[in-house]
Amino acid sequence: MENRQSGEYSEMVHAQAELWNLTGIHTLVDVGGGTGALAKAIIHNFPHVECTVLELPHVIQSISNDGPVNFASGDMFNFIPPADVVILKWILHDWCDEDCIKILRRCKEAISSRETGGRVIIIENVIGSTLSKTCQEAQLLTDMLMLTMFTGAERDEHEWQKLFTDAGFGSYQITHTIGFNSVIEIYP
């Protein structure tokens, strides 16, 4: 069962990563990437990309660092390893605007120049990005969860744009995917 799920996840990542255009990218850091499922799926589909997962020490203390994924112990508020691309998947909605700006500034310090493909890929909800009533309801329920459980929130495009500008990024692009998640690419 695990192999089947792993294969399906890999296929999903391949489909999404086509949008990310990893051509010419050599290094990628998945911030808060847990046990490395996303990074492993990326390597499976794009073996030329060297993937590192940045996680808190207690999360990765029992994970072997001898596989295709590198694991770095650290705190995204202090340091993000240098890479061409940094991925933040379902990270920023947990944090208030001030903390998001701190994280995004660390990302900006970590990525290579735009000319060499440097960017941050964010996978999050963009409120109002879908016409589906079911997806809109899911977005609002997730927003309520973030407001009550964490200091974060779901954001609309205008709120995302303000965060990117305040963190010093030059431009961004949002690709709406199936469901209520979007892929947001921000460039230095």
TrEMBL record:
For the biological process aspect of GO, one term held by this record is: methylation
Q: What SUPFAM superfamilies does UniProt report for this protein, alphabetically? A: S-adenosyl-L-methionine-dependent methyltransferases
Looking up PROSITE patterns in the UniProt record yields: SAM_OMT_II
Residue ranges of every copy of the O-methyltransferase C-terminal domain listed in the record? 18-169
Query: What's this protein's name?
Result: O-methyltransferase
Molecular function per GO: O-methyltransferase activity
Q: Which UniProt keywords apply?
A: Methyltransferase, S-adenosyl-L-methionine, Transferase
* One Pfam family this sequence matches: Methyltransf_2
InterPro entries hit by this protein: COMT-like (IPR016461), COMT_C (IPR001077), SAM-dependent_MTases_sf (IPR029063)
